[in-house]
Each structure stands twice: as structure tokens, then as C-alpha cells.
């Protein structure tokens, strides 16, 4: 495997390349879930404090992405899905990605502490460390459980948003964390089913590579069945209500049925139709998570009119 320090800059980087280092698509999910965590909390936050806090949480998420791209440049060059990223393509030097990631990490954590509180800043610092070191440097290349344990990094943003407002952690923020944490494995394993060769070529021990697609299908169904109760239990807390619960029931029935269809398929069938069912499940998983958090937001927004909450 190529050492990332041997990468040479082959072209002049543009502004868009540095934005790409921050993984804007991933960052958009971080921003949305953190914003929801902040807005559904029982403590009102001044709009300017809320805006600044979400901005610094986004910067922290982007910093994690830059550090991830710095470390993973060697395997990104091998995988078709990631070959065009700024570092493996040679448009941005690895040391630039590292420098940007470290600088933004420091700025994000310090400024969030000043704008909000030390609890939120501490959670953000731990999230960046967890994603960059625990997941990217350690787990990703060492265990097929990489995405299970590493998924915690993507689950922290709503907890951080909640901490911005309340200065602490509660059952509601823990359940929002759990919702994303349990959603992450079936979401990424569905992707791994139709991207298995990429992970295998890069030497990443994704479950599809180490245990095969049949075992991965079993795990997708198992985690999806475990996810549904988490989503429904969250609906009976202070951030839930009939609107969220109705939405959650529909979404989880569809998600479980999708996982069941994936579980029933054999590899010849999946190969023959180009993993159509798996790709459909992966795309729906994005909608699934977005709508759950939109449901939390709707409950809070409609509560003053007597339409939200229990």
C-alpha cells in the first residue's frame, strides 16, 4: 500500500478542492442533526449563539473530514469511489490537508467553548478525536467492526447541539445519538454490498470482505430490527409526539421490509440486477434518517400551536 507521505502534488488546488477536503455532503448531515439537537432542547438559545454554534460544529465536522482524507489518501487512491478526492488525485498535498484539519479543529473547539459552553466544546473535541484517531487511524484498517464502533463519531452532533442549549446530556440527546449509531451499520453495509471490490482492493476489512456478503446481509437485517425500537422509544420522550411517532412507524416498516428483501437475496440474483435492491435501500437510508430528525423538528415547531408533543 502506498505511503501517504510519497504523494506528490500534481496540480494547482482551487477553492473547491479545499471545500471538498471538508466532505461537505457528510458535513451537511452533521449540521442538520446538530441544529435539530439544539432546536428541540428545552432551553431557548439566542439566534446568534445558535448560528455561531452550528457554524463551529460544522467546522469541526469539516476538520474531521480533512484529517480523514489526509490519513486515508493511500487507500482513497485505490478505490474508484474516492480516487477523485483532492489528496489522492494530487491537487492538494497531504501536509496541507493535515494542516487544515488541525487548524480547523482548534478553531472549532475553542470558538464553540466561547460561543456556547465547555461541555459542548468538549463533546466536539472528543468527536473529532474519535473520528480522526479511533475510527480513521485505528479501527478502519484493523477490524470488520470498524463502521459499528466508528459510527459513534457521526452520532455525536445532536448531542453537541443539545449541550449547546442545556449545558449537559439527557435521555433525549442519548437517544438521538443511539438512533444515528444504530442506523450507521445497515446504511454503510448496504453500500459495501455493491462496493465490495473497492474495499477489498484497498485492503479495508469491511464486513463484506472479511466475512462475505451473506454474513453482511444477516447483519443488516439484525441491526435494522434493533434500530426500529430505538426510533420508536425516542418518540415517547419530550422531543417526540404523535407526528414523529406516525412518521417513525411508517419509516421503520419500510426500512425493515427493505432489510428483509436484502436478507432474502442470493448473490447471483443481486449480481444479475446490479444490486438494485441494495442501492435502493442505501438511498432510502438517507431519507430515513433525515425524516426522523425532521419529525423531531416538526414536533417542536408545532407544539406552541397545540399540534406537537404528547
Which terms would index this structure?
310 residues; single chain; Tetracycline Repressor, domain 2; 2 domains; mainly alpha
The ordered string of helix (H) and strand (E) elements is: HHHHHHHHHHHHHHHH
CATH topology of the largest domain: Tetracycline Repressor, domain 2
| Architecture (CATH level 2) name of the largest domain | Orthogonal Bundle
Largest sheet: none
Number of separate helices: 16
| 3D shape | flat
Q: What's the pLDDT, averaged over the residues? A: 92
Helicity, as a percent range: over 70%
* DSSP strand count: 0
Q: Structural class of the helix and strand makeup?
A: mainly alpha
Distance between the termini: 55 Å
Q: Give the count of structural domains.
A: 2
Spans with pLDDT under 50 lasting ≥5 residues?
A: 1-5
The top-level CATH class of the largest domain is: Mainly Alpha
Name of the CATH homologous superfamily of the largest domain: UbiA prenyltransferase
* C-alpha Rg (nearest Å): 20 Å
Q: Which band does the percent of strand residues land in?
A: under 5%
